[in-house]
What does this fold into?
Amino acid sequence: MRSLRKKIITYFLALFTLPRVKEIIAGSARMFMGEAGRYSSGIKTEAIETRETFTILSKYIRKEKLSRDEKKKFKRQVVDILRSSGVMVPVMLIPLPFVGTLLLIIMDHLLLSMHIQLLPDAFYQKEKNDILTPEGIEKDLKKETKFIF
It folds into this structure.
């Protein structure tokens, strides 16, 4: 039994130290780190926009005059808040800590490839440089990925 375990461990160790497999794993790790950075910056931006929306709401409650831009910003942010709570809360309720994040990333990429933005606007870049746009994701999906397995 121990020799079988040893052979399995040796096999996987040899497999994961192959240069091509290391490159594929490193590329996947880089992509995941980029996605994690996008989500964390999106959350920060949403927090700032929500704070501004709260300021606008407090002005409205005090019966102060709101400008047209403030009304637009308020409506857009309320929609973003409702969108994010409808998407993120159910996904993050999954009890396993890392699975919810991975599920959210996979859902976001699949729906973005169908031109559906699942998350609030702060999570997507304004300029379209083929990163996290439907066109960029379609291009990534069309790339050939050859696995050794």
